[in-house]
Amino acid sequence: MMSLSSGSRSLRSNQASPSTGPSGGSPVLELNVGGELYTTTVGTLRKLPGSKLAEMFSSSAKAYTDAEGRFFIDRPGTYFGPILDYLRSDRLPTHHIPEVYREAQFYEIKPLVKLLEDTPQIFGEQVARRQFLLRVPGYSENLELMVRLARAEAVAARSSAVLVCAVRTEEDAVLCADALRILEAEKRSVVKFGPWKAAPQVKDLLDCVKMDITAQGYQVHYEQFSERTLRTKHLGYFYTFVFIWW
């Protein structure tokens, strides 16, 4: 697919009026999706009534066009091709599954969304990993806190270290309570995860934390906390996440 040449493009809101296809078939139109050009028919875009894509090209819809008169959709164009392939021939994508899944959700292509949710990539993320993280109290809030702490220590530094306590069971939480009090007395900030009621172990949680922070664009790794501040029996609950800035 071609990309539009660089430079600003003026948009204007027009009534959708695709050209009539050959032999009285479904009208053919050209699309500019985020700079990627596609040619298809109105029938293909309206194949699934009730989808957002069908609504965009209904007879009463307002449509934006680019400077060349092509219908414009302000979405990532790279992943629109697999959406069209599915509408044309029910063919499932084999590459960029998470990205196509996100676009299928946006366009409300519900049959494709359901099929993609059965793929290993989406099933593993939505059903396995996400369901586990929902059982970890305050997981999302803790991620935000870790990033805030790391950024606060980043001034004139190449890296920042954030101390994390991970306890899987209530018994573990009791055992490391004294260590948390020691660190609190030293005014050390500690982000505490757990306990949780799910099978995954502490390393699984730490890998999830690393994965989700990395997905935000940060370069981060974790290592076992090794300072002598704590007794040896407590060290297994504490980890240092190191954010690399440059």
TrEMBL record:
Q: Where is the composition biased (Low complexity)?
A: 1-27
The protein, known as: BTB/POZ domain-containing protein KCTD14 isoform X1
* Stretch list, region Disordered: 1-28
**UniProt cross-references to Pfam families, sorted A to Z:** BTB_2 (PF02214), KCTD_C (PF25611)
* InterPro entries xrefs: BTB/POZ_dom, KCTD7/14_C, SKP1/BTB/POZ_sf, T1-type_BTB
- Indicate the segments forming the BTB domain, all copies: 27-124
One of the protein's GO biological processes = protein homooligomerization
